[in-house]
Design brief:
The complex is a heterodimer of chains A (about 110) and B (about 120).
Chain A lengths: L3 E4 L2 E4 L5 E7 L5 E7 L5 E7 L6 E2 L6 E3 L9 E3 L8 E8 L7 E2 L3 E5 L1
Parallel strand pairs in A: 2-11
Antiparallel strand pairs in A: 1-3, 3-8, 4-5, 4-9, 5-6, 7-8, 9-10, 9-11
Chain B lengths: L9 E5 L4 E6 L7 E7 L6 E7 L4 E3 L3 E6 L4 E6 L8 E13 L2 E8 L3 E6 L1
Parallel strand pairs in B: 1-10
Antiparallel strand pairs in B: 2-7, 3-4, 3-8, 5-6, 6-7, 8-9, 8-10
Classes of the chains: A mainly beta (about 110), B mainly beta (about 120).
Chain lengths: ~110, ~120
């Protein structure tokens, strides 16, 4: 069963806590991406990574951090510095030389 | 930039009708376009794509038309079914450069809600 998996599906966080969202892919894709989606809006890019041990900030990176220690995995940490973290978070991947991105099922984060 | 807000464009059709969803893109340098379908609570699903050197591309029940002169993209769905009800996003791709290599950067529209009535 190939594809992109994200866990957990729902996540609740207290204010001041850091939380980490998991993203794993077995498609052998080089590039991976994290997006944030708010109600009624399009997707906004948080971070992306083209190769292992390398990643770049997207349009809204403040308050987030990532790592890319393995090709298959691209976890996203939502830190306490992110002032409005409640959103739907989507991970995507693509082959490096192609532009089509394929998405995981998403994680809905709610701050209590 | 993208307009933001809580009121997405909506399109309501009867089952069996053809649907046309429109999208205006922002950058004349965009070279690749994708349509995604997103059902409630799920991740976007790839539908069809088109490169900027094409005007039209057809898939199964779907057709994408690209008008570069007016920077307009449309998705046509033939014989729309209730299972087609979802939010549809267009995305434009621009090759960007970072760290000495190029990568594709997608910019998404806010989406259109398609509702298909039986």
């Amino acid at each position: 069963d190939g594809g992109i998996t994200q866990s957990p599906k729902y996540l609740f966080r207290k204010e001041g806590q850091n939380v980490t969202l998991s993203c794993e892919q077995n498609l052998n894709h080089d590039a991976m991406y994290w997006y944030r989606q708010d109600p009624g809006q399009g997707l906004r890019l948080i971070y992306y990574s083209q190769i292992v041990n390398d990643f770049q900030k997207g349009d809204i990176a403040e308050g987030y951090s990532v790592s890319r220690e393995k090709k298959e995995s691209f976890p996203l940490t939502v830190t306490s510095a992110q002032k409005n973290p409640t959103a739907f978070y989507l991970c995507a991947s693509s082959p490096l030389q192609l532009d089509t991105q394929y998405f995981g099922p998403g994680t809905r984060l709610t701050v209590l | 930039g993208e307009s933001v807000g809580l009121h997405l464009p909506t399109l309501s059709v009867q089952e069996g009708d053809n649907s046309i969803i429109n999208c205006a893109y922002s950058n004349s340098a965009s070279d690749y376009f994708i349509w995604y379908k997103q059902e409630s609570g799920k991740g976007p699903q790839f539908i069809i794509d088109i490169r900027s050197n094409m005007d039209k591309r057809q898939g199964q029940r779907v057709t994408v038309l690209l008008n570069k002169t007016v920077k307009h993209l449309s998705l046509q769905i033939a014989a729309t079914q209730p299972g087609d009800s979802a939010v549809y996003f267009c995305a434009e791709n621009i090759r960007a450069n970072a760290g000495g290599t190029s990568y594709g950067k997608l910019t998404f529209g806010q989406g259109t809600i398609l509702t298909v009535h039986p």
